[in-house]
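Posting this for the archive.
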Amino acid sequence: MIRDILARISAHPIPFVLKTQQGVEGGGTFMISSSEELSKLKATLSTLLLPKLLSSVVARNAYLNPATLILSEMVTDVVGNWGLTFFITKAGVCVFLAATQQIMDSSKAWLGSKISYLAQEKLKRKFTPIMEEIGAWLHGYGYFGPCGADILEAMNSDDPAERSTTMKIVDLNVRTSGSLILGLLKGHFSGGRRLHEATVLSVTTKMTRGSFVGKLNDEYRAGRLVIVSWCEDVESKVSYGFVVVGAPNAEALDREVAKIKQHASSVEM
């Protein structure tokens, strides 16, 4: 079976994207743009990934297809990497929450999201058609609740002269997504404090929550720093936090993030 899977993958035109059923923050997604990357992928699949995936299939979970691999074409000419968050009511009405910019590292792994609150009304008009399309499809299956969608905005190859773009849905997160909190904090940041830019950060530090807040007391008391969650490992003495930072503009936001990096061993946006 492994040999058949590898043969089918090898036959697919490059570039392409391969995704597993389980993944987080870009993990489980492989973007293949060259024959060298294909060779590395096949080695990973044959020795590590496929044996583990296939061994996870048992009689009681086979109907869930846990070892499914998704093979698709790669979106090219990307001009925007967006995270759309919204809520589907029980009646099927879609409530726009936010459109954020996705932050990726060099390996295309998701690091976080940032938002411009002043741009949200314009982005709402831009994303309403695709939001309602997604919402209608999910509601058709009886779903209501929070939803996130990873969307790539690419140049329209059918109309290059007009420089128009098209939206490509690359992932649906039918749950509470990592960037959901940014939309919900609009009133806190942009409403009363005139902090119109914000980003979410995953923080790793050897400080306790109290010590971390103490180092950034001015930012915390002014409302520029919001701690969404915090976990302290009593054995390793390492803390893991999920925080949101706000600032008046993009330049000031970079400075606020730099302050946090001074007090953390690892910061991912």
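The longest strand covers residues 78-88. The mean pLDDT is 91.
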